[in-house]
Design brief:
- One of its GO terms (molecular function) is metallopeptidase activity.
- InterPro entries: Metalloprtase-TldD/E_C (IPR045569), TldD/PmbA_N (IPR035068), TldD/PmbA_sf (IPR036059).
- There is one protein chain.
- It contains nine helices and 20 strands.
- With 463 residues, it is of the alpha+beta class.
- The chain has a six-stranded antiparallel β-sheet. It has a six-stranded mixed β-sheet with strand order 11-10-9-12-19-18, covered by helices on one side.
- The N and C termini lie far apart (52 Å).
Length: 463
């Protein structure tokens, strides 16, 4: 009994609870790491995590117990199921209790073996990376970075008859170029499903240009500057905004999406730009699980919703707030539509111009900043969604349509909701890798944004 689908079936057979959900996640990874223009390590891993959700009906209400363990053997399966049942019996009534999902057609590949990645995913990428090392060495640059590919096959079975399966590939590439004296650094990142659409030579050429810009240093004080935010920075800000878009919290008056005096800001215009922020499990190149996969309950996520079908959702439609995150439970509490989180995020509605074209169109006299990425983002005030963080790996000065040098790094204080309202231009939507959240969220497509008064609150000494 080594196949994940067999383990799911056996766990359901062992269950003595009134309801049961079993999730088996079969994971494989392959990675490469390099430093100083040379490959340093590579590896392949395999793993399995089994999550059992036991549901027990009592006189006081319905309780749930959740237990997750890795590398579960056949002998350990029954103790795991019993542990989840004991957790449920020892818990109080579950606030988010709902009937388990029913009537979802079974995945046709539920009984198939899990998908796996291997070092073969780098068959074309690795030789191209070696050629990039040679070019960088000849150009006086040092390349550092990491490439990781992960494939997770998730099997979901429930006592109400659901048998669902989703395969999620996830690849990330982060590449740093540094000058030999380490005084100049530039970063580029890419998200990919299979590394077939990643070109190390193009990335190295992009980083070489940025290192060239950094040969001229310009010191600027803290202040508000016209700023061009690249897609990766926009993604980091809007992902945090999405994570903060709890419908229940908004109704309770605790977030930037709460309406003064009660209710939510659903229906409010957040930006005059015709921007649409959306998620879609079937978005080409950014495909995500088409049903709820909840390993725990909390906020607007519920283990009782496992298997609930997900459909395309517009969080913001042409500048107007349309949806906030809800589970079935929090939707019932708030009167909002059911809108679970989806594991991708797309911002559409900008123009057709690339970031380079937006730079070239910056021809006024005042300084304009071009960022590379944001880092160490933390929340300051949930009521306004004020965030603070740092710039990193290159802040550049744009003058008369050209990049003329590198300026110092800054700490910023900004709210993504305010930024959307103040942005004067959005460029072409492109698939991007959010740098800050790349360990948790990688499927994003964003445009560059022009903000006339981005708040650089203090100077940072970081590179």
């Amino acid at each position: 009994m080594n196949k994940p689908q067999e383990i799911v079936e056996r766990a359901l057979e062992l269950s003595r609870a009134d309801g049961c959900v079993v999730i088996a996640d079969e994971q494989s990874t392959a990675n490469l790491r390099w430093a100083g223009n040379a490959l340093t390590t590579n590896g392949v891993t395999r793993g399995r995590t089994l999550t059992v959700v036991a549901i027990v009906d009592g006189m006081e209400g319905t309780a749930s117990g959740v237990v997750s363990r890795s590398a579960v053997t056949a002998e350990e399966l029954e103790p795991l199921v019993r542990a989840a049942e004991a957790a449920a019996r020892g818990a109080g009534p579950a606030e988010d209790a709902q009937p388990l999902v029913t009537d979802v057609p079974a995945s046709p590949d539920f009984t198939d073996a899990p998908a796996e990645t291997s070092s073969a995913v780098f068959a074309d990428f690795a030789p191209a990376l070696g050629e990039a090392f040679a070019r960088a060495r000849a150009g006086g640059r040092e390349l550092y970075g990491f490439a990781n590919h992960e494939l997770v096959s998730s099997y979901v079975g429930t006592s109400t008859g659901l048998r669902l399966r989703h395969d999620q590939p996830n690849g990330t590439l982060e590449l740093n170029a540094k000058s030999p004296d380490r005084t100049r650094s530039a970063w580029a990142g890419r998200s990919t499903r299979d590394f077939k659409d990643v070109d190390p030579a193009a990335l190295d050429a992009e980083l070489a240009v940025r290192l060239g810009w950094a040969e001229r240093k310009v010191a600027l004080p803290a202040g508000r500057y016209e700023t061009l935010l690249p897609p990766t920075a926009v993604a980091d800000l809007l992902i945090y905004q999405m994570w903060s878009a709890s419908g229940r919290d908004a109704v309770e008056g605790r977030t930037v999406f709460s309406k003064p005096g009660g209710g939510t800001r659903v229906g409010d215009k957040l930006t005059e730009l015709p921007l649409t922020l959306r998620s879609d499990p079937n978005e080409p190149g950014l495909e995500a699980a088409p049903f709820v996969l909840a390993h725990s309950s909390g906020g607007d996520s519920s283990v009782f919703d496992n298997g609930l079908p997900l459909t395309a959702t517009e969080w913001i439609h042409e500048g107007e707030l349309r949806h906030l995150l809800t589970s079935r439970h929090s939707a019932g509490l708030t009167g909002l539509p059911v809108a679970p989180g989806i594991d991708n995020l797309i911002l559409d509605g900008g123009g057709a111009r690339s970031l380079e074209e937006m730079v070239a169109d910056t021809d006024h006299g005042g300084p304009c900043l071009l960022l590379t990425c944001l880092w160490y983002i933390r929340e300051v005030d949930p009521a306004t969604l004020l965030l603070t963080g740092l710039t990193r790996d290159g802040v550049y000065l744009v003058e008369n349509g050209e990049v003329t040098g590198e300026v110092n790094n800054f700490r910023f204080n900004e709210s993504p909701v305010d930024l959307l309202g103040r942005a004067t231009e959005a460029g072409r939507t492109e698939k991007t890798l959010p740098r800050e959240w790349s360990d948790w969220f990688t499927r994003a497509a964003m445009p560059a944004l022009r903000v006339p008064d981005f708040n650089m609150s203090s100077v940072s000494q970081g590179v």
